[in-house]
Amino acid sequence: MAFKGPFVAAGLVAALLLGFGIARATAPQSTPAATADPNTIPSHSHGGAVIGDLGGFSLSAGGFTLVPSEPPTFTANVQRTFAFRILGADGKPVTKFVPNHDKLMHFIVVRHDLSGFQHLHPEMAPDGTWSIPLTLGSPGIWRLYSDFVTLDPAGQQVPLALSIDATVAGDYTPQKMSDPGRSVAVDGFTVTYEGTPRVNATAPISFRVFQNGSPVTDLERYLAAYGHLVVIRDGDLGYLHVHPEDQLVGGAVKFWLSAPSPGRYRMYFEFQKSGAVHRAEFTLDVQ
């Protein structure tokens, strides 16, 4: 596909208007250091990432810019290929990416009311063009997140989450989020979580999977981990893709989280059993 110059310019203007910036860090894959309180650890010294690293506010950050090949407009329930490039500060397409949990890029899709979640993995052509078949199922505005690790001019790894909004024409009826709760049923499983994220204090949160009332003890690794967690803040759609401890902890998938502010968040927990990936969604109110 040919990239439209005026649209690129418009996208850069949009980036300036969005202007929120982005700061997403990938924490080291290590075991949490011991502290006086075993349920609280210093930020960034654990085996996952924290809500405090929310990003995904803008299509441009850290000298990198997400540039779609065409305006991201869709027809509800009609599949089309969404293609884009990541441009560096020199305006050239980036072609060097670092694998992150088995993939060079994670592509997260959600409507602005936090419904319709999708976790996809686009493919890159040699010229740096990424493409993914994409279907948006209902009218409204959708946020498309491009989550990846690349290299800066000094060769240092740069984890980023860039985003752009897509529109689907039609009458928009926002869905009401479920009330906060610690247990949801999905695909014949019951998924629960333990732990309470707190503002500016990193604490554990553990997910457990049950089937027919019994704990599932044979969860499988999906994308190199026993579970994945995407957290999106209601209102500004601040984004984080969290990875857990490398091993199950007491049969649970354990993450470490810290909230940057009070408010409502939506958590999307993915796990794999018998070769199939399932997703449990939770609403979380942080006081």
Structure description:
The protein is mainly beta and 287 residues long. The chain has one helix at 5-18, and strands at 60-61, 64-68, 73-74, 80-87, 105-111, 118-120, 123-124, 129-134, 140-151, 157-168, 183-186, 189-194, 203-211, 214-215, 228-233, 239-242, 253-257, 263-273, 276-286. It has one helix and 19 strands. The strands form four sheets. The chain has a five-stranded antiparallel beta sheet. The chain has a five-stranded mixed beta sheet with strand order 3-10-9-5-6, with no helix packed on it. Strand 1 and strand 2 form a beta hairpin. It starts with a helix and ends with a strand.
Show the helix and strand layout.
Blueprint: H1 5-18, E1 60-61, E2 64-68, E3 73-74, E4 80-87, E5 105-111, E6 118-120, E7 123-124, E8 129-134, E9 140-151, E10 157-168, E11 183-186, E12 189-194, E13 203-211, E14 214-215, E15 228-233, E16 239-242, E17 253-257, E18 263-273, E19 276-286
Parallel strand pairs: 3-10
Antiparallel strand pairs: 1-2, 2-4, 4-8, 5-6, 5-9, 7-8, 9-10, 11-12, 12-13, 13-14, 13-17, 15-16, 15-18, 18-19
* Main sheet: strand order: 1-2-4-8-7
Provide the β-strand percentage band. 35-45%
Helix content range: under 10%
Q: Which ranges are low-confidence, i.e. pLDDT below 50, for 5 or more consecutive residues?
A: 1-47
Q: For the CA atoms, what is the radius of gyration?
A: 19 Å
Terminus-to-terminus distance: 47 Å
Quaternary structure state of the chains depicted: single chain
Shape: globular
Helix/strand/pairing class, anyone?
A: mainly beta
Q: How many distinct helices?
A: 1
Largest sheet: 5 strands, antiparallel
Number of strands: 19
